[in-house]
């Protein structure tokens, strides 16, 4: 099965951006680790990133035809985007929401997620390891 790993705004700066919050690993490191774990689990992975809300909506729509599961870190759009929630609601497979930081431990504007209304599972505060945990969970669910 193919799993799309979708990343929202500023995650292209992962590793350089507020490393005290998001760590030193880059998104390329995450993509490589996911590909490697995916191979062990019998899953193919594609890791994509965009800084644009509409582009993220289109990536989610494309996943309807190309992927059996979605792992998504919508970044700041988590807290603002009904459009991303609606796009995910049109996807039929498992959706796992990942946040590198624990959004509940941070500013109150990060406590609410529009995406959680659709996500089958939410992982927050595990660092970039959260993506790997999400992949293991999808493997278990698609089993
Ligand atoms: C984030 C948390 C969001 O609040 C923030 O806007 C991000 C990253 C995380 O992975 O911890 O950009 O989704």
Explained architecture:
This protein has 143 residues and is α/β, with parallel strands linked by helices. The chain has a single domain (2-142), classed as 3-Layer(aba) Sandwich (Rossmann fold). 38% of the residues lie in helices and 18% in strands. The protein is built from 5 helices and 5 strands, in the order E-H-H-E-H-E-H-E-E-H. It has helices at 19-22, 27-41, 53-66, 82-89, 129-142; strands spanning 2-7, 44-49, 69-73, 95-99, 121-124. A 5-stranded parallel beta sheet has the order 2-1-3-4-5, with helices on both faces. Helix 3 (53-66) packs parallel to helix 4. The termini are close together. The model has no long low-confidence stretch (mean pLDDT 98). 1,3,4-trihydroxy-5-OXO-cyclohexanecarboxylic acid binds next to loops.
